[in-house]
Amino acid sequence: MGIIIKQSFQNLLTTYLGFALGAINTLFLFVNFMNDVYYGLVGFILSTAFILVPFFAFGVHNTMVKFYSSFEDKDQDRFLFWMLLLPLLIIVPATGITVIFYEAIAQFLSSKNTIVADYVWYIFIIAVSTSYFEVFFAWAKVQLKSTFGNFLKEVFHRLGVTVLLLLLAFEIIGISLFIKSLVSIYIGRMFIMMFYAFKLRKPVFMLSRKRIENPSIVPVSKLSKQGVAIIKYSVLIIIAGSVATLLIDIDKFMIGKYIVIEKVAYYSVAIYIATVIGVPARAMLQITFPMVAKMLNNKEYTAMHTLYQKSSLTLLIISGLLFILIVCNIKSLYLIVGPAYATGLYVVLFISMSKLLDNALGVNNAIVFYSDYYRIVLVIGVIAVIIAIVLNMVLIPLMGINGAGIATLIATVVYSTAKLIVVQLKFKMQPFTSGSLKAFVIIVVFYSVFYFWDFNINPFVAIAVKGSIIGISYIAIVYMLKVSKDVNEMVYTMIARIKNIF
Q1: Do 182 and 196 touch, CB atoms closer than 8 A?
Q2: Could you tell me if 69 and 246 are in contact, meaning their C-beta atoms sit under 8 angstroms apart?
Q3: Cα separation of 276 and 303, whole Å?
Q4: The domain containing residue 83 runs over which residues?
């Protein structure tokens, strides 16, 4: 667990730095210095672009992680080279379709909000840039180097947005240049990730059909048995990636389709607040995903089960604390953000619960998608997306953004539960232990005690006081009850370092 702990901690720091910048952007700069309509437009552009990413990436970023460790030496070079080309099978035709049917696409996207029509190419460029960023990030991850890529993924673009919002606040740039610059940030991030990935392992361009020694894969034109498996997995993982992305971003897209676009801004703030709960998982899973893929390839099921349970318990404890801190301070937080945005209060509660459940599953996603049983979950995932779309179509016109929150919660719970059941049935392992029950009880008790306990004082002070009481009490109880050996070691290390400072 040494490399996991080290890189997870580094990733945790950069991820939280990114989310701190994102919080400043989302909760203060956007809401104060950008019109709600344009804030909603930015959210719509990004959400629509991210929906396209799994298709444009052709599932390569997942395929690379799954198959890389099964190759050796030059076979790995040939494999990586073809992984760079596969996304073009989608991106090139998609470019032509966008050129030919631009007006029809623009009309479809702007049926409710005409302002969207002028930004179709912005959506397309961000989607392509993000797709290849994920490919280059996966290139680095299979070398077990995730820290710099995680910095780019979590911090770089948010820092760029912070700078742009400050320029906008001081009227140095206008909204048009802001959005163009935003697109440039995503393009620049892609190229920086590419240079770093190629520095770790230079690409070897292999257009020749000549067989190599001990071939594991041949050029696509010959389609060896393993080559067929790789292509098949890539195609199917597009569906898997689309399911995950759609469950995250389809709600914002559909809000922009059914109601006024400024509601996307209100919903985006609520989603961002709740997404903080998922930060620990994002940090840990950057490094554990390649390790799970390797364990599956080598059939190291005992080690995988141990990692499954440890990751689940650790993430449940950490995300549980974040869940309590967020939902028990949400009323004070919305007093700071503004009354218009407070319409998303219940959205925060709904999405926070779904994030907590997802974190509690640990490396479940990796086990499912890098095993031979991912096809089963793909079917369930498609069903979950259909449920989400139908519920959004029904609930958004009736309940506004709260309806979108309910739809996302229901679809996410269905999908997460299905993945849990698949791993249990196929691998005879599940992530929960007696420590999980203790953690769950602690979370419920803290929620019951602190949610209805409000301080009628300055909201900043209220959050600081209430958050401190919750944080100290929660950590102390988890430590004293010895819920998790790993968490106790982390707490002990932190206490020791603080003592050394003083």
Answers
A1: no
A2: no
A3: 29
A4: 2-501
